[in-house]
Amino acid sequence: MMRIAILIFDGLTALDAIGPYEILSRLPETELRFVGREAGPKRTDTGALGIHADLALAELPDPEVLVVPGGEGNRSLMTDDEVLGWVRDVHDRSTWTTSVCTGALILGAAGILDGKRATTHWAYLDRLRELGAETASERVVEHGKVVTAAGVSAGIDMALTLASRIAGERVAQSIQLGIEYDPEPPFDTGSPHKAPQELVDLIRSSERTE
Amino acid sequence: MMRIAILIFDGLTALDAIGPYEILSRLPETELRFVGREAGPKRTDTGALGIHADLALAELPDPEVLVVPGGEGNRSLMTDDEVLGWVRDVHDRSTWTTSVCTGALILGAAGILDGKRATTHWAYLDRLRELGAETASERVVEHGKVVTAAGVSAGIDMALTLASRIAGERVAQSIQLGIEYDPEPPFDTGSPHKAPQELVDLIRSSERTE
Questions:
Q1: Are A23 and A163 in contact (CB under 8 A)?
Q2: CA contacts within 13 A on the Cβ side of B63
C-alpha cells in the first residue's frame, strides 16, 4: 500500500491541493491522507473554506509520496524547523516528492531543490532561484524523484503525470476520463507569455506585496 | 455584495466544488460561502477529505449565485424535499444557477432543467435527459441564467465563463492568469470521444453500479 501525504496549513490555496487529491486518491493500492503541522481544521487563503488535516506530522513520518501545495500561508512554514525537518525526513525516504505552485518554496527552504531543475507559480520563479533551484518555465518539471508544478491549476497536470509513473499510463488515462479533463479555457490568458502585459504586471505587483 | 453559495454534502466530489471556488472566490465585491443541509464537516466521495459547511441552508436562503457540485452522495439529495425546496427557492430569485458534473441531477430533480439545454458528466447524460433536460455534450452549457458544466474538471471552465459574465472578461482573464490555467494534459483521453472505447466502457460500467 503506497501512502500519499498532502501537507495542508492555514493560508493554503485550495486548488493546489485538491487538484492532485482528486487524481491521486483514485489510484489503486494507495492511501491518501491530509496532514497538518497539527491535526485539525485549516482555513484556506481566501478565508472562505475550511479543510481538515486528519493527521499530524508525527502520525505519518514516512509516506511514499509527498505533495506540498502553495498559498501565502506557506511563507511562515519556510522558517518552521518542525515542518522543514519533517519534509526533509520524508524526502530522504520517499519514492516521489512533489509540489504545486509556491509549495516549491517549502521544498527549496528545506534544501531539497539545491541544484535541481524545478518550477513554481510564474510570479515566484526568481524567489525559487534564490533558494538554489535551477528554475524552468514549464508546466511540470521532473528531476529524478522530485516533481514540481507551475501555479495552482498545474497540479492537475502534475498529478496525472505522477499517476502514470506510479500506476501506468492506462490508469492515468482512465482517471483523466473519469474527471472529464478535456479542458476548454474560455480565454487564452493562462500564462504570462500569453496574457496582456497589463494583467501580468497587475498580478506580479499584488503577489509581491504579500 | 453578490453572495455565492456552494452546496456541499457527504459523498461530494471535491474538485467539482473547489474548481469553481478557486475562481469565484477571487471575484471583487462578492462573498462566497459553503452551505450544507446542516452546517458542519462533510466527507468527500473518496472518504479521504473533510471539508466544512460554514452555513446551514436556512442561514442563506437567497444567494445571488448557486453552485451545485456532483458526487455519488447527491443521489440521496435527489429525493430530499428540504434540499430540493431550498434549491428551487434559491433559483426563483437567483441571478445565476449553476452545476458541475452530476450536480445537474439535483437541478433536474428540483424541476429546474425542464425543457432547458443542460449538461452533466458524460456517463450521466441519459439520466439527465430522464429528468427533463435537453442534454448537450458540451463542456459548458448556458441557458438563460442556468449554467451547467460537464464532469468534475469542467467546473473550472464553467466558473471562468461565469466570472466573465459577472465581472467582465478582464477580471476573468486576470483570475485565469493568477491560477496559471494554461492546461497541458499529459494524455488526450479526457472525453469519451477521444479516449479508447475500452476505458469508456470501464468507467460507464462502474458509474452504473453506484
A1: yes
A2: 27
Asked if the ipTM is above 0.85, the reply is yes
pLDDT value for A105: 98
List of chain A residues whose C-beta atoms are within 8 Å of the C-beta of residue B142: none
Tell if the CB–CB gap between A49 and B51 is shorter than 8 Å: yes
Distance CA B8, CA B14 (A): 9
Report the alpha-carbon distance of residue A48 to residue B31 in Å, rounded: 8
Contacts of B85 (CB under 8 A, 6+ apart): none
**Amino acid at residue number A31:** E
What burial letters (b/e) apply to A154-165, b meaning 16+ CB within 10 Å? Answer: bbbbbbbbbbbe
**What is the interface size between A and B, counted as CB pairs within 8 Å?**
210
Shortest Cα distance, chain B CAs vs residue A150, angstroms: 7
CA of B115, closest CA in chain A: separation in Å? 25
Q: What is the pLDDT of residue A208?
A: 53
Describe chain B by its helix, strand, coil percentages, rounded to 5: 40, 20, 40
Residue A2, pLDDT above cutoff 80: yes
Q: State whether B199 and A152 contact (CB < 8 Å).
A: no
Residue in B closest to A120 by C-alpha = B180
Instruction: Work out the number of other CB atoms within 10 angstroms of the CB of residue A109.
Output: 20
Q: Domain-by-domain residue ranges, chain A?
A: 2-184
First to last CA, chain A: 40
Q: Is the dihedral of CA A209, A122, B31, A50 positive or negative?
A: negative
Q: Which helix (H) or strand (E) holds A109?
A: helix A103-109
Q: Sort strands B140-143 and B134-135 into parallel, antiparallel or unpaired.
A: unpaired
Q: What is the C-alpha to C-alpha distance for residues B189 and A203, in angstroms, rounded to an integer?
A: 33
Distances (CA, A) of B166 to A41, B139, B169: 31, 19, 9
Of B15, B34, B177, the CB nearest to A195: B177
Contact between A119 and A138 (Cβ < 8 Å): yes
Please tell me which residue of chain B has the smallest CA distance to A175: B190
A81-92 average pLDDT score:
98
Q: Tell me the fold of B2-184.
A: Rossmann fold (3.40.50)
* B46-87 tens-digit pLDDT: 999 999 999 999 999 999 999 999 999 989 999 999 999 999
